[in-house]
Amino acid sequence: MKYRKLGSSDLEVSEISLGTWLTTGVGVEKDIAIDIVNRAFNLEINFFDTANVYGRGASETVLGEALRGRPRDSYILATKVYFPMSDSDSGLSRAQIEKQIDASLKRLQTDHVDLYQCHRYDEDTPLEETMIALTDVVKAGKARYIGFSEWSPQHIREALALVPEVEKFVSSQPQYSLLWRRPEKEVLPLSAENGISQIVWSPLAQGVLTGKYDAGSPPPKDSRAASDDMGGYMETLMRPEVIRAVDRIKPLADAADCSMAQFALAWVLREPNIASAIVGASRPEQLDDNAAASDLMIDPELFAKAEDIVAAIPRPER
Predict the structure, then answer these.
(1) pTM (2 decimals)?
(2) Is 54 annotated as catalytic?
């Protein structure tokens, strides 16, 4: 496993990290989830990403149990705040940030997280209030650094303009994959200019880029797309034209002597502003293949061909 510096922080995170969305505490039984975390450590993955809203606290609770007893300096822990935890608890107000960080730390069984992230931008709370509250979380020792997920370039610039009066963001968590390249236009260059690294989610496009789906057949029974709990976000990705394009990438992965998942993850990690690619797992052995993508060297011409294939996918009709 290789490691990369997270923005302007002193954190060195594994190129492949373990996420818990739709899995730990939600779509995967607790014992299996704990086995997955243990396998991650065996593979030298040191970065674990969760959020308070995943299972309304269930994900943090199970992850906290899985990490219990391990030296606190043996892993880097990130969680998020914003989405509703109850009918009256949501957003990035000072009151919510103060309440939710304490609740997250209790569930995670730790006195601090290494990275506390705004899960989305809060249009209903003044940005300065949010940034001051996050700064106070860091000053209190409850988080070492702060980050955001899916913020617009405008909001990123506005937050940076408040520095040094407030804590500076060190990370951005956007969706990014061969099938979703939107961050390349503005978020990646803006971040690189300001000491902000990307921690990307869905680098395998919810598993579609592993090549396990067939355009003419129903999804495998044990796949995410077939799951009532985990498949609700995949309608656009499961279009036949997308699956057929992914099939055309398979010979490129064969030429690189790697799996489809490794090819897709290595494509993400080719970008120096990416610190880590977050992967999920429903079985421990799934991590083995993903972890092997770290520091994998692939001919850039193969990546270029894959990009051309994806660029030719017809856009869905509205």
Answers:
(1) 0.92
(2) yes
